[in-house]
Specification:
- The protein has one domain (2-253).
- It is 72% helix and 0% strand.
- It is built from 11 helices and no strands.
- Helix 2 (34-56) packs parallel to helix 4 (98-127) and helix 7 (158-182) packs antiparallel against helix 8.
């Protein structure tokens, strides 16, 4: 019981830090523009999560490696390409210089680094003692719930934020699946960064119109279900009994070693 209470306390304390704690650092006083202030913020958060991982969930350090099965890496890249391609096709490439595009990519990757180290790194690692099923589901729901702050402080509509929370929870489950499947957190970091990248290319007017409008619930549910199914297959598929029946196809796709 003490162990559970300690875990719950650390879980809630880390959540508080992620939402409010870091915001007390006066980054806006730095002599840089908004872009660099935000980039420094995500870098600082990433370093903070690395420190917290070292202190409270040292077993997670094994997932900070770039070492992984070549076949599983190829399979993971196929999954990443499948989910990011639609966003890349609809991105606002026109009117953005090469510098803007590279700046947007860098910023998106730092968002992925920050949020993945926290949710898939620390939160999942903290809950892993209760089993993969419990940890993967709770960290996903927690990640989705964190996006409610976009309605509270971000000026988003409740409808759009609600759909964003559902999508983010499913996305968190998919990212967890990629981490477990490859054994490395860098793969979901890449997926996260590339998923956010097209959003960073939007004009402020287009972004505001999108987040203050209504939600596409049909598209949200379909995409969320697809991410959950793929995430489940990544977590449990390689160990399932029916793997032998599909082994030729799975081997061709690089899903078995």
């Amino acid at each position: 019981m003490k162990s559970f209470a300690k875990t719950a306390f650390i879980f809630l304390a880390a959540t508080w830090v992620s939402i409010w704690g870091v915001s007390y650092i006066p980054l806006d006083k730095l002599p840089f523009g908004h872009y660099w202030d935000a980039l420094i913020y995500h870098a600082m958060c990433a370093l903070l999560w690395l420190l917290i991982i070292r202190l409270f969930t040292p077993s997670v350090k094994s997932r900070l490696t770039l070492r992984m099965s070549r076949k599983r890496l190829i399979a993971a890249c196929i999954v990443i390409a499948f989910f990011v391609t639609p966003n890349f096709r609809g991105a606002s490439w026109a009117g953005n210089s090469l510098v803007n595009i590279l700046s947007a990519l860098l910023f998106a990757l730092f968002i992925g680094l920050n949020e993945e180290l926290f949710s898939r790194g620390f939160i999942y690692g903290l809950l892993e003692r209760y089993g993969v099923a419990v940890a993967s589901v709770i960290q996903a729901i927690h990640f989705g719930a964190l996006h409610f702050t976009n309605y509270v402080w971000g000026g988003q509509s409740l409808s759009y934020t609600s759909a964003q929370m559902v999508n983010a929870a499913a996305f968190g489950y998919l990212c967890c699946g990629l981490m477990i499947f490859t054994g490395s957190i860098w793969v979901p970091i890449l997926l996260h960064g590339l998923s956010d990248f097209p959003l960073e290319l939007q004009s402020q007017a287009a972004f505001t119109a999108q987040v203050t409008g209504g939600a596409d619930w049909f598209g949200t549910v379909v995409e969320a279900l697809l991410m959950i199914v793929v995430g489940w297959l990544l977590i449990y598929g390689p160990r399932s009994a029916w793997q032998k029946r599909l082994e030729p196809v799975l081997d061709w796709a690089g899903l078995v070693d």
